Please model this.
Amino acid sequence: MVKLDLEYRTRLVDAWLGELLSKLPALMLVGPRAAGKTTTARRWAASAVRLDRMAEATAFEGDPDAALRNLPEPILLDEWQAVPGVLGAVKRAVDEDSRPGRFLLAGSVQAPLERAMWPGTGRVVSVPMYPMAIREQLGRVDEGTFFDRIEQGEDLQVPTDPPDLLGYVELALRGGFPDAALRNQPSSAPVWLRSYVGDLLSRDLAALGGERRSTGGLRRYFEAYALASATVTEAKTIYDAAGVSKVTAVAYEELLERLMVAEAMPAWHSNRLKRLVHQPKRYLVDAGLLAAVLRIDARGAMRDGLFLGQLLETFVAAQLRVELAGSVAHPRLHHLRTEQGRHEVDLIAEFGGGRVIGIEVKAKGGPGTSDARHLAWLRDEIGERFVAGVVLHTGPHVYKLGERIVAAPISTLWSGESKTPDR
Model:
């Protein structure tokens, strides 16, 4: 088995960062805490300031404009949210000199980019960064992304040592946070992830001004949200299960999304299709985090067929979410569901011109044509806009299920001759 260590592994977002830094004056890396933002940003920065350290933050709190002067560029301002006034200084610096590659900002809170008065509007471009995909852990970032390979009609390749169902579960449980995923003792990952959840619900809640909110209520809501990961679930069902009010639930969901540990994936729409539901599909951004919140181990996941399906789809969605940063075509992810659930496609990748790739995730080793029926329906409904359909499964083989539809192992997401990471 391939041994993983804590040496830096190039991320898919690295190439995108390099391109953007050559064109734009200021970038902001946003993502969950401990996803590797600081480590990656430091590789592109000539100087770095940790604004969550009092000794380094003092000058920026007093006179951020003066503090920025004469620092070698690009300047990394890490944990920028600890000294929000630094954003105004970056704005003024960019207004005076808009040379590319001047500033990198990193933080654990989603910036409120939608607010018209936010100082970074028009000056700072947000770049999302998520926990590591398996292909990043294996150092396979130079190959084309899953999306690009399919769009270009390339055959999907299976690694020489693909996991079985239990292997996929163990990879999902370990997740993609570098401190957990890259250790050679996979059994330590659940401990790290449970600690992460504890910090998330206490320290990070307070950092967003949530001191007066009930940590117990947020924990219950987070657990109810986790139970709904990879499903189209009514908001009321979640907040009723958590025992909180609608108003409180809205605040909690916004909090989890700002911390970028939860994501509401939008529904896909088409003028050719009627009666599509508009509800989002909720996900935790990391499958290991999902298991840690619910305190479920591999044995428990294998015994619960419903949770097993949710875990694997959350895992696949996490891999694809990272792939977006490296894709030449920059597709957007959606889900599709018709009213009453007559037709449902787990994930839709939409490219320019409304072209789509449909993806289904199955916790079985040999899906048949019946498992591709929703993809076939979508293909027949939208015609040439349907680029391809893929049924991702836990078996070892790639094979055809119909016109423009194939069954492929989940491991084709990190395909090549490299072996599967230690389980």
Notes: Confidence is low (pLDDT under 50) at residues 1-5, 113-117, 417-423.
